[in-house]
Amino acid sequence: MKDRSVIVQLDSGETVCLRPVRREDNARLRAGIAALSDHSRYLRFFTGARTMPDDVIARLCDADGSDHVAWGAIDLEAPGQPAIGVVHAIRRGTGNEADLALAVLDDWHGKGIARLLLTAVISDARDAGYTVLTADTLSENRAARHLFRVLGGLSVHRDGPVVSYRFDIDTAARKLALITTGAAGDRLRSALMRSTAPRRWARPG
Question: What total of structural domains would you count in the chain?
């Protein structure tokens, strides 16, 4: 299997590796979930539990690039090179719609990790034939709701504290290209163009 790892330097100076999630990332993903603050873990999983059942971890790592697309970010400068963020798009049934979910460790908020991972996941998701993404988040998660709106997501349903957003994937891709215009975003898009079908990721004029 071709190594699609992309090494980027963030505007804040840190060097990180972005790559598709692999089955052998089980321990790294489990450690990353435990490293989230209780509040961030609650916002991502709607539970404060520090550990997830084995079958949940296995499903999160079982990204085949078609029915489940997932990219993670790894801190190359920390001991053990821990996971610092991950984004998933998981197909609903047999259609062209996928559920989107993301998490970034608290210390890495505001550094553009989520936007970079979304750029990679949406590129692969489009290649896999997805046309629509949906995402559920808690109403108190203002950061996620703001990001979803920036990407063109529309609030389509609310069930108690849970708000559901719906995205046109092409619109989300165009908007991401406008907000990831630094060196890290350019390097990632260049790598994605080399490793997938040629199209799409031109810098906005």
Answer: 1
